[in-house]
Amino acid sequence: MTSADLRALAISADLAVHYVRAGWLTRLARGVFCRPNDTLALYPSLLLLQRQFVGLHVGGKSALDWHGVRQYVQQQPVLQLYGWAAAVLPHWFTERFPAEYHRKRLFSEQPGSLLHVGLFEQRSGTPQVSAPERALLELLSEVGVRQPLQEARELVESTYNLRADVLRELLQHCTSVKTVRLCLQLGREASLPWVDKLDPATLPTGSSRSWVSRSPAGLLVLKP
Predict the structure, then answer these.
(1) CA–CA separation, 154 and 166 (whole Å)
(2) CA-CA distance, 189 to 173, in Å (whole number)?
(3) In sequence order, which residues have a C-beta less than 8 Å from that of residue 151 and are 6 or more positions away?
């Protein structure tokens, strides 16, 4: 809970300090508290961060994993969080939930109305999470930066059930030519059913020139 939550319960700042000194509240950070001996849960913690970070949502590889699309099972995977503005995750959160935060503006959209981001499994009390189609594009946007191409290729092979209409809408609003081309290229390589329902002529694939990028993993060439 935050200081604002305490004020809503008629607990002033001075009284909150008294509660902390008396051991009735634990101070996690400035303006953030929990009950003593409580084990922080992921969902409520994310809900609190969503109130503080504009557009915060679980995305990329983590969102794919939450939706059951995964290739490798890690003992303690790093939670991938995305938001609209530059920010640093608080220590009280990352020390309990290993996580990375990325400022990402991959689509033409507004921070208060992100495309295909909603409550996980459409259940109340759950955090905002990317739909599988958006999560895939968020993942592909990281290829050549912090995401290995081979792992991305293997994850794409597991996206047999993606909705072509949702993916089409996201691709049409995508601001990254690399991401659009990579999605189409990997979809063709894996002969996935959704790729045949996408018309490259209606998507922002850029100019007729090849897109080339060099990374520690090698040379990535994406044709239009």
Answers:
(1) 21
(2) 23
(3) 71, 72
Please report the beta strands in the chain, taking only residues with DSSP state E, as ranges in sequence order: 26-29, 32-34, 57-58, 79-83, 99-103, 117-119, 128-130, 211-215, 218-222
Query: With contact defined as beta carbons under 8 Å apart, do 49 and 56 qualify?
Result: yes
One-letter amino acid for residue 170 of the chain: L
Partners of 79 in the β-ladder: 99
What is the rounded distance in angstroms from the CA atom of residue 116 to the CA atom of residue 170? 8
pTM: 0.89
Beta bridge partners of 110: 113
SS3 76: coil
Could you report the per-residue pLDDT of 75-91, keeping only the tens digit for each? 668 999 999 999 999 99
Residue 69 burial (CB count, 10 A): 21
DSSP string, 153-180: HHHHTT-TT--HHHHHHHHHTB--HHHH
Residue 149 pLDDT: 86
pLDDT tens for each residue of 124-169: 999 999 999 999 999 999 998 888 888 899 999 999 999 999 999 9
Q: Do residues 16 and 2 make contact, with C-beta atoms less than 8 angstroms apart?
A: no
CA distance 102 to 59: 10
Q: Which residues of 167-188 are buried (b: 16+ CB within 10 A; e: fewer)?
A: bbbbbeebebbbbbbbbbbbbe
